[in-house]
Amino acid sequence: MVILGIETSCDETAAAVLRNGKEVLADLVSSQVDLHKKYGGVVPELACRRHIEVIGPLVQEALEKSGYTLSQLEAIAVTVGPGLIGALLVGVSFGKSLSYALKIPLLPVHHLEGHIAAAFIEHPNIVFPSVALVVSGGHTNLYYMSQKGQYRLLGKTIDDAAGEALDKGARMLGLGYPGGPVIDRLAEKGNPDKIPFPRPYRFSGNYDFSFSGLKTALMQVVSQNDRDLRQDSSGYPDVAAGYQTAIVECLVEKTLLAVEKEGAKGILLVGGVAANTLLRRKIREEGKRLGVETYIPSSRYCTDNGAMIAMAGVLHYKQGHFAPLHVNPDPNLELL
Ligand code: KG4
Ligand code: ZN
User: Fold this and answer.
1) Does 282 share its domain with 195?
2) Ligand 1 centroid from CA 298, angstroms
3) Calpha distance 305→83 (Å, rounded)
């Protein structure tokens, strides 16, 4: 079975070709980072226009790379939400047109279901029950999975997503966009204990997260040390390390709490922030310590990509869950 996966929910146009639910034959991502960089974040209207320009040639290139032709495709998987409505519309309209013209099913994929499916690309035999920590620029959700395709939301952020906190933190420090990778690199050279940051919501007694207070703490650090920091940027790595460690520890603690209380045998760590060096290391170490399996995709499958959407589409295909041609994208789609 050959599935085309399309992703346009935010600032990445992505297309991939997946064979037999396991072989990624092509996986192309066209990033819009350069377009949004000067604004310090994603500008929805610009994102949407760029998706329109890029999607056609990108799908064509992915097909060429895969060695398959349009007429050999058996299904189209596309992200139908959540995300930016204008951006989602481009992928969904493109997917609908192809599905109609080729007379093949359209598989509606939830973006977070896509991120979770990314773990299955390199780990086909995940043990259940597992918990899945989905950490991206827009989401920080912790799910209990009794089996593949079954998601029970345990907790989520009550304010900013972890990636958002990293991006906004980097912006405060004047480090550019997206901030997650910059903070990741900078923190490697810093001392995480030099500047203390709080661990918000640590003892909340549930699985929720909160990161907006950390931004305030960072703002205070920046304003108190502004002169020193500006005169001597050697202080940045310590700030980045302290800030990143606070975020990572909150994520890891709640995940481990869930593993323990829910009796999980595995941990899936997915989404853009799962590319973070410290978070990956901590989850691996803690998994080993507790004797539970850890499943973390390679970095390229953590950030938005088409392969994860095609992978999630496989399950829809098997279940005969096809989208009607009048399907519309939903910017606030819930994962059920
Ligand atoms: O999943 P994703 O590509 O898009 C969304 O669905 O939001 O995630 C993007 C987020 C951004 O906030 C970005 O800063 C963060 O993932 N990110 C990282 C790293 N690479 C990307 N955060 C921390 N460390 C990284 N290495
Ligand atoms: Zn994403």
Assistant:
1) yes
2) 13
3) 14
